[in-house]
Amino acid sequence: MSDLSLDHILNRNPHMYPPATQLTSHDTPKDSEDYDAHPVPNTTSCNPLSDITISPDDVRRILLSQDDNKATGPDRIPATLLKYCAPYISSSLSDLFNKSLSSGKIPVEWKISNIIHIPKGGVKNDVSNFRPISLLPIVSKVLERCIYDQIVNHVSSQLHNLQFGFLRGRSTTSQLLQVLHEIGKLLDQRMQTDILYLDFSKAFDKIDHKLLLKKLSNFGICGNLLNWFQNYLTNRHQKLTVLSKTSCPIPVLSGVPQGSILGPLLFLMYVNDLPQQTTTSSVDLFADDTKCYRAISKPQDFRDVQCDFDRINKWCQV
């Protein structure tokens, strides 16, 4: 999936841990056995979700909520135009969206993004001081919002309760309070707590599409809707715009679409089984930012933490 780096280890006796191996992963597994080896959430009891229908009212509501200052995508259709024309085009767009869902196909033009760069500060001739921003056609994001609104409850009810990212009612603050509460209880017992802070490198860009589709299926997404997601993820392209000049499109072979509405939710589904890889440590996530921690009272506890870390490492390499 992605490179995983150990940013920091908080412990009072660092020499107790064996040397950590460098965490690497492959953009694509080698064969079907690798996919079968990757754990997926057990959701066989959930109701399948194969078809959804988008009404003109759904489209009109989302069009009217558009920000007039939103940047345009490659089609250059401004949000202001779509917003003012919402009463007249919502029915036609609804028909087009439903046709896309029933056929499992998305217009090719909606799968092209423009990449622009926003300065973060510092020297402007250093490329590392710029943040890439992906701009998608606004109409395609309206479709994504319609789909998101209809599947989010189905998906969120199955997400791990230790995931705090991109979910309504959860935040970095709620995750921090959860971890501090657990560590505080251990401190009250005069117990040491060791924490591994983990971060995935380019996490959103290296998701394997075939494995993601398998996990979507295990969330109960099937039929036309699963076919739509397969088409949504594949054959995407992006163009780079610098100083009013735009490059030729290049294919995007992995990852969830940056700048999209569905991308964050798809990522949560992909990493949903990560907490299941540890056997003795607790895990809390905010999207890909992960804390892995446990109480330490004897030398074996150090080795258990390392074993959990190795299991996460193996999960990343599949």
From TrEMBL:
SUPFAM superfamilies: DNA/RNA polymerases (SSF56672). InterPro entries: DNA/RNA_pol_sf, RT_dom. CDD domains: RT_nLTR_like. Pfam families: RVT_1 (PF00078). Transmembrane segments: none annotated. Residues 1-10, 27-37 have a biased composition (Basic and acidic residues). Residues 1-52 are annotated as: Disordered. Residues 41-52 have a biased composition (Polar residues). This is Uncharacterized protein. It comes from Paramuricea clavata.
